[in-house]
């Protein structure tokens, strides 16, 4: 019986992994094409029973995590071959580096979700935070992929690739800023300038938090 349960678990795991090949590009396309609709979709799906949630897409946190795995794979396949990189000892492990990236890019949807709740005067707890965080993860994934790709290109030692990397990072930031500005303006009843200012501040806070975390690892843990 234990062996049969193991086989059944392996079957389900294999199907789940294979289904990502269909639902990941589908989720990415829908998010790029209609980001506002996907954020609303994330809110609605959480109200369903667990078995009925996200049946035709990937769940938002999983979508973000797979995106970071893809970005990490690009680095392993391309950039490290072109420009060997000596990371801090804590990040020398691919698992630790991937975990750091997951935490770093989850800061942005977390800060956006917190800002939404605070503006609405909603008490922050694990229950109230989950819905806006999930919706924010959808649009954070394309931003993470494009920003990571831009960052990787800047590490290749040619002027053209560095310029292309900066342009790609700028495009990712502009897309993310535009999507979030429209979302804040609509759901918090703000004017577009006020929403843009609020989102810019949050984005800056996220970048600062990520840089500080990276510096702490690079200079703190490396010397420990």
Describe what this molecule looks like in 3D.
This protein has helices at 2-33, 35-45, 60-82, 94-120, 126-154, 159-187, 192-220. With 224 residues, it is mainly α. It is globular and about 55 Å long.
Radius of gyration computed on alpha carbons: 19 Å
Rounded to the nearest angstrom, the distance between the terminal CA atoms is 49 Å
Low-confidence runs:
82-86
Helix/strand order: HHHHHHH
> How many DSSP E strands?
0
Q: What portion of the residues fall into strands of 2 or more residues?
A: under 5%
Helix content: over 70%
| Shape category | globular
SSE-based structural type: mainly alpha
Provide the residue-averaged pLDDT. 84
Helix/strand layout:
Blueprint: H1 2-33, H2 35-45, H3 60-82, H4 94-120, H5 126-154, H6 159-187, H7 192-220
Helix pairs in contact: 1-2, 2-5, 3-4, 3-5, 4-5, 4-7, 5-6, 6-7
Descriptors for this entry?
0% strand; mainly alpha; 224 residues; 80% helix; 7 helices
Could you give a short description of this structure?
Helix content is 80%, strand content 0%. By secondary structure, the chain is mostly helical.
